[in-house]
């Protein structure tokens, strides 16, 4: 019975970031991006007919504001053909504290679930195009392991697909930084970043890094993957600081401390590189073998720091 079917999508962490839109209505990015899907964090979603005349939304068993869900379902109605109001129920297995984005897994799971509920069978690339309209990073969460989102020039050409990559012992440590950084949503943060005088250079540099990253992934060169990811992320965060209109940073003192600890570890020959998204949390690219010693070292300095080790995760699944 399709009514009881659920879709599960995992979060992804961009190693080459999406940080700017050339078309905000269609969510067309200014750059192509490349990500690793994580095993530990995911969203499971089911839909059923709404008992009211509007779309309704329950997240982790709590009734929530359905505005963003409804706006997205309206887009799906224009793209897939009209359907009656839905009740959307999601369970987020993503730390709810600042920084680890759940919109990627959430909009991917919702898209997959609605399409399956309607009895449609669409390729993942098409699903990714649809989910992009809900949240750009969601376009990459249909695919396991590595994915690329091609920036494209229009609705049709902007979609994600799997990046065929060898198995590799890559691990990603998520350090959940306590305390609050400035709360700037990703859409708003990108708009500000685009006012940086360095923005055009960042876009050009990102294209080169994308090519280098693709090669590093094909070679399963985790050291290079980490190094490129760190450069790309720090350049993204430098845009926020140099914005002409409302400069800002997601970094807290603890973020900075972790970044310097990672540098120290590197001097000791440990493979550890940082990437950061729209929040203060630090994600550390390393190998499965070295993850435990990095966790132990960070725990020594910051006993309160919450640390999770994630590895490569699967694409969307249906139960
Ligand atoms: C820093 O996908 O959350 O995580 O499309 O406006 O919903 P919207 O933005 P969103 O942005 C993610 C930004 C990022 C980098 C990335 O995931 O590529």
Automatic annotation (TrEMBL):
EC number: 4.1.1.33
Enzyme class label: lyase
Any single Pfam family the record assigns to this protein: MDD_C
SUPFAM superfamilies: GHMP Kinase, C-terminal domain (SSF55060), Ribosomal protein S5 domain 2-like (SSF54211)
Keywords, alphabetical: ATP-binding, Lipid biosynthesis, Lipid metabolism, Lyase, Nucleotide-binding
Cellular component GO terms, alphabetical: cytosol
GO biological process: isopentenyl diphosphate biosynthetic process, mevalonate pathway
InterPro entries with a match to the protein in the record: GHMP_kinase_C_sf, Mev_decarb, Mev_diP_decarb, MVD-like_N, Mvd1_C, Ribosomal_Su5_D2-typ_SF, Ribsml_uS5_D2-typ_fold_subgr
Domain Diphosphomevalonate decarboxylase-like N-terminal: 9-160
Domain of life (superkingdom): Bacteria
Domain Mvd1 C-terminal, first and last residues per copy: 173-304
Listed GO MF terms: ATP binding; diphosphomevalonate decarboxylase activity
Family of this protein: Belongs to the diphosphomevalonate decarboxylase family.
PANTHER family named among the record's database cross-references: DIPHOSPHOMEVALONATE DECARBOXYLASE
Protein name: diphosphomevalonate decarboxylase
Organism: Leuconostoc pseudomesenteroides
